[in-house]
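Re: that chain you flagged

S.,

Sorry for the slow reply, it's been a week of failed gels. I finally had a moment to sit down with the sequence you sent. For the record, here it is as I used it:
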Amino acid sequence: MLLLQDIAVTYHNVVPAVQGISLEVPDKSVVALLGANGAGKTTTLRAISGLLNFHKASIIRGSILFDGEHIDRLNATQIVQRGIAQVLEGRRLFADLTVGENLRTGAISSRDLAVVRRAYNRVMELFPLLRERRNSVAGYLSGGEQQMLAIGRGLMTSPKLLLLDEPSLGLAPFMVQQIRSIIAEINASGTAVLLVEQNAQMALSIANFGYVLETGKVALAKHAADLLQEESVRKFYLGLHEGEERSMATIRQHRPPRRWSI
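Prediction finished late last night. Pasting the structure tokens below so you have them in one place:
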């Protein structure tokens, strides 16, 4: 479904952030994108969703294909209309609007009211709590409820591919598990997910495949179950083997596969 080929991104035409990333997200799959702060994860999502311009950044090399079509020169609205939605890190809700109003902003690019109504009903089925809170002001929701609302708003365009940027950030462990279950349910209903997460255990527990980024490059690309067993990943991300040097410098460099199957 999604294919990135040798993508390179710079900020302000000077600062390199992504230096030749290649990855793919097959239809109806979950792919995890892991890496330390500054590794290029969010920049990669921005390149896919067309948000680089808003951050004074641009793609200087490579291509992005979605369903066989080049999207790397499209704007964000055009990319949403083709079936990609992004849930931004930090939720970015309209705090003074109600839950229902926030959800409707997620469908602002849609002109088909029947499609919007079906998407709204689907969100309410996925998040019964939002149905109860639909007239509540978003700024007064708990952190977990706000994250549910942010994901729900992303689903209002009925995307084929959902980009999630740190959905578990700042949440209590029990809420992280709820978000994990929600992502799995979204995927089970047919939506592919590209999941950026610092919580590697959570991400790899639901992903089919995973990529580890380091300084703007793919350092590892393996099936999720294999990444969980990878010694360097276990040390650096899962906190195992305490007392040893926790550095990604020892990660073996691997060229990511051009194709993989679940």
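What I noticed first: Residues 241-262 have pLDDT under 50 and may be disordered.

Talk soon,
D.
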